[in-house]
Amino acid sequence: MSAIELLDKLDAVGISLRLNGDKLSVVGDQRKLADNELMASLRSHKHNLIELLKQRASADPMHYVIPEGTQTITPDMLPLVTLEPAQIDQLVRATPGGAANIQDIYPLAPLQEGILFHHRVQAEGDMYVIPTLLRFDSRARLDGFVAALNQVITRHDILRTAVHWEGLTDPVQVVWRQAHVEVQMLAADPHAGDALSQLQAYADPQHLRLDVRQAPMLAAYAIADTSTQTWLLQLLHHHLILDHTASALLIEEIVLMLEGRQAALPAPVPFRRFVAQARQGMDLARHEEYFRRMLGDVDEPTAPFGLLDVQGTEARIGKATAQLTPALAARLRSQVKIRGVSAASLFHLAWAKVLSLCTGREDVVFGTVLFGRMLGGASIARAIGMFLNTLPLRVRLDSDQVEQGLKRTHGALIELLRHEHAPLPLAQRCSALPANTPLFTSLLNYRYSHEEEGGGVILEGIEHLGGHDRTNYPFVLHVDDLGESFTLSVEIHDSVPAQRVAAFMLQSLEALVDALERNPQLPLTQVQVLPATERHEVLYGFNDTATDYPAAMLHELVEQQVVRTPNAIAVRFEQHQLSYAALNAQANQLARHLRRLDVGPDRLVGVMLERSDAMVVALLAVIKAGGAYVPLDPAYPDDRLAHMLADSAPVVVLTQTSLSARLPDPAQAHLALNASATTAMLATYDSDNLAPADAGLGSQHLAYVIYTSGSTGQPKGAMNEHRGIVNRLQWMQQTYGLGAQDVVLQKTPFSFDVSVWEFFWPLMSGAQLVVARPDGHKDPAYLGDIIRETGVTTLHFVPSMLQVFLSQPEVVAQCTSIQRVICSGEALPAALVHGVHTQLPQAELHNLYGPTEAAVDVTAWACTGKETTAVPIGHPIANTHIYILDEYQRPVPVGVAGEVYIGGAQVARGYLNRPQLTQERFLADPFVAGGRMYRTGDLGRWRADGAVDYLGRNDFQVKLRGFRIELGEIEAQLVRQPGVREAVVIARADGAGLIAYVVQDGATDAAFLRAELGKHLPDYMIPAAYVQLDALPLSPNGKLDRKALPAPDGGAFIRLAYEAPAGEIEQALAQIWSELLGIERISRRDHFFELGGHSLLAIRLLEQLRQRGWSLDIRALFAHPGLAAMAAAIQLSPTSGSHAIDVPRNAIPAAFAASTIPENEETEEFRL
User: Fold this and answer.
1) In what order do the strands lie in the sheet with 172-176?
2) What superfamily does domain 283-448+476-537 belong to in CATH?
């Protein structure tokens, strides 16, 4: 018996030998050595065995393969992988022909592991099955092609490779000695369309999967096309075995075979050599140090257009291509040559500028596809296999000039290439992002290609009809360097037109090349990437609002209506009513008295009255006198009133006898309008209209000053001029068309700017103004009564108050006169729109937006009832401009968030007595000569139709666990839950999480709400505490008062403190977690991915469960990442199969799901 035969015999009984210096160690059940003959043979062959094992150990692992004819494979034959004899036996049983058909077993390359992960996660289809479509002029030509393909399969080990993972700690690839592909012939159905469509429908990778446990990972489907007398072949291969370069090489070798030029083929390069080199060169500590240096402070994902789902399906991906002009390509190559950098470096910098445009950030991270063939020298350039890798590149744009930035990007790429085989999950862990947050969601794939690769005749009678790109990333740019020219191919989620993004890249390249030629010291932040067409669209197309309105001042609009309908009822308050003529006469008399008190243009008059018809007279009189009114709400605290009076220094305060004592300064001039002496005195004045010219009054003068909350704690007065509010009212009348039949309810406190249109819109249009009693706006029952009794057709609600109103269905049902509801002041939830359309089906609902600093409202949206989540704030109104700008006040493209700026006719003059703040918030309009614009502090984004989505305040935008999130998205999900009528979410002051406040019809516990939210939102958006309220606290104007929300007590929080695992499965699972994650104590409430788990560890976890006789579907693992939930899923899973569980969107940890690349990657390393 030879030493080799003895090793085979030992292996047959489950015993293997290991070298320990010059000694042999026995691994396995040594009781089986009780066989005296076996023991004697072991002793007699000891020295031969030692020499044999030494020879095998010293064999080059890059070239070593299992000797042909081997009947038993032992662990020492597998230098690249560690397997137990039982595991080897399992692989042998899974291979047709057994051990004799196994040439090699070795690990997966890093990127193969990521691709395998995707294969296992997907339930239907496989995004990494790549199709190639060919046409043949005869069946014989088709058969010859397939025969040549099988010859190429015989040449290359990777084409004869299967992948296995069951029962293994890590997946392995098994190389068969013999494998071939057979063509499946399809019978064409004459009633099912053309042959090509039938073939592609049958062999569609969106629905068809390849069994990667069987070699070769290729499939061929053919059909006869009788209309052209040709044959069509759909060839499918899995990305585990071929990258783009290898696919092209595969076709080249087939052509050489068909031409009989096999001798011209170079010797095949085994893929195992690449795996061995990659494993030997994998210095994880060095990789980690590099990526920590690059990414250690990155705490926010780079997600252009807010695209975060790296599990998007191909069906939602749009595509576009673009070609650089020959002139631009030549200029580009000239500039990079001058500076000694690669064209790839300039494309990476240009792509960073595009991502900056699409994210509003100057510090971006994106994936770049690396060729992966540097380690193998020249021979590996023609090797067939999967060599690629995807790794992050970070580019900072805010501190460099163009030339400096180009050289810095070039250097960064060179350094990245030294780590081209580092695993992407390692890079992700080196950032400051949580494990289940994607580091980036866009990819740049720069590759060297040939013009003919897109399709064409590859040999007489054989035509390549092209392939079909697929990707799991929502945003990918392929750059094909064709030697002289360049082609761009964009793939992006279909919510964003791909052609737009291609235009961004072309503009970025043009601008950078131009800067390199003309001004290389230009700061990168000043390089314009937004194409001129889209820039013009967002600045001027969407703001094409120019409208001619007759010149007038606010009171003149009312006076004109008085002439038209002097005897019609203008104002009604409780039992009092005034005709248009009477209202005008009383206002004129008071105005003349105010003129005598020296009220005139830009002079301020305080008005401290309770809501009544007298308030309407007072406001109209002030502006008739030429002054501007300052509302002093009696509901305000004394100290606030004192500040407003001191700041505004009014000429006089119009008040009533019951409120005079509230004036903090007894010396303050005031006039009690309800005093009998005042009434008698005013009756002595002429009641005719005053001539504005007498006081030098014009539309540029102030109409009112309304105080708004200030960041310093003291309110600030926004000064609005006649021309602004007149424009606003004329637009409103033109758009909504009030008439004599209309009745408008004035219920908003006059200290808020909505009251301005409530007062003056009906009075300029012949409608009737009904004034609600003081505090009546807070009482839904009273509102119902006054609406019903007076026939109100038009009224305003802040969404919070509208929700309260609709919560009284018996009241709302009686309000059949309502024809239009105007909403503003807060974000309008879609659920509330549906509520209005359900309970007030006869009424229009309009969503308006605008700050006090821009004459009430500047955008408008007519609600259709089709809104699903966010209700837009609409389009700019007449003579106003909306700009959405980044931090450098550059316009952002459609679909990208930015800060809202307002220009045009309605911009206020500024803040009273606050020149510095006015200078900060009221700026010169850079887009309209001589114009001014107001910086709102609101966030918004353009929609493709020119409407604006409101995204909240800067100070309501919260950054948690690396994400910037809008609290309104969480609130929208909460109000969808059964019984929840209203919801508000705020960020905890300590930054540790979110608090949800809910108003419910019944009691719903926090655990239920958390579980329901978890079905629709990622973990980082789930509130930690839930506070149930009887009603949300409202401010005097009916808006939500966030400061009045109570602090949550301990019972509001879902406890996540340590809980010991309970039961056998939880305890065993905790032990597995502890070993995999290196964490000693695991709570039953812990989250696998929050503790550092990732996709590769998840696969190891599944295998350890399998070894214990338990089964868990990989999708169930990601759907239930908590220990207790995972244990419960294991209990539910039958050991014989998978338990089907739906995976919520984004449940798969994005960073590790993203550790793969699109199929049509790169064909050569960056030529650095």
Assistant:
1) 102-107, 172-176, 161-164
2) Nonribosomal peptide synthetase, condensation domain (3.30.559.30)
